[in-house]
Amino acid sequence: METIEDLRGFLADMTREGIRGQLLDRGTARAIMRQARELPADAPPFGITIETDLAEYGFSVLRAGLALREAGEHSELSQRAFERAANAFESLVRNASPEAVERGFYRTIAGVAYHLAGFSAIAYSLFGQHIAGLNVTPAEDALILLILRDLEALREHTRTWLRDEANGDQTLVALLEADEIDADDALAVILNSNVCRALAYFDFALQTGEAELLDAAKALLAGGIRLAADAGAVSLWWITRLCLNMIDDLWAHSLHVNLPTEPPAGGAENYSELRRMFLASLYARRNAEVELWPSQFEAAGRSSDLSDDLVVALPTSAGKTRIAEMAALMTLSVEKRVLIVTPLRALSAQTERSFRRTFGP
User: Fold this and answer.
1) Which residues contact 41 (CB under 8 A, 6 or more apart)?
2) pTM
3) What percent of the chain has pLDDT over 70?
4) How many CA atoms lie within 13 A of 180 on its CB side?
5) Residue 267 pLDDT grade (very low, low, confident, very high; cuts 50, 70, 90)
6) Are 315 and 307 within 8 A, CB to CB?
7) Which 3 state secondary structure label does DSSP give 38?
8) Domain boundary among 236, 252, 268
């Protein structure tokens, strides 16, 4: 049984720069140089075992990072482990053959690992147009939709899978008794259904803010992890475990957790209703905006204090508008006005559209 110190020591060594003959750098260079899924004739030697090396490295670092996180340590070291694992798996699939059977599995792992590392935008970019023809299981497909924050499509996907009688218990029992399906195939259906059911619970948790629904989703996934481990279903064990960690991380960063439930000093009685409509407006977008980014945390914590003076200096698209929206929500709850000043007429029009979209309700 590994201790926290064992995991820290392992990850400190495995995430240092240049590990294993600059394996990650070689993997990235190889992926970039691939054209039409093939390396050019004059490409330098990257090592005949590089694909195996990248996969082994990615899984070992990811395993230790998850173990550290599940032990309650959400540290810079665990985040660096997730980033390194994501780099390895992304290198395996970028510009690779679309016929590769592990392509969807590795890309899904890379997306979740980037998300756990705090790079949700990079995770999102891995699935542009949801990558037509990506070889994924129903559970992986559901996870990708969650990464894309396409909750409407996630809801439809899970509903369709779970309502299909072909995936139901009675059908599986009948097929097993008639010897028309083997135990491994039946197990795959059960584990995929379990992930879809858990994400349906989680979607409802994001919609309502009820933590009990999150607990129900996590309980389902914990049971799925044990079942997959007992049955030796390796790929579904990874996907179920990653799903559990992702929803736990996403909930911790969600506005349900980080937007105060109590009004500011002197707040109106209708704050809870204003808060509910604010969250519903963000949830209902085509790509739901349900969580805070790492760049927003400190400012978000201060934006709810109406006695605080705050200057937020962040790069473009780093989340300043959401901080302003949270401050505006608090100000409106005490029935005061919000004044927004911008230096350009075009920016004023853009800002008005943005705030109207959020505060229209």
Assistant:
1) none
2) 0.92
3) 98
4) 8
5) low
6) no
7) strand
8) 252
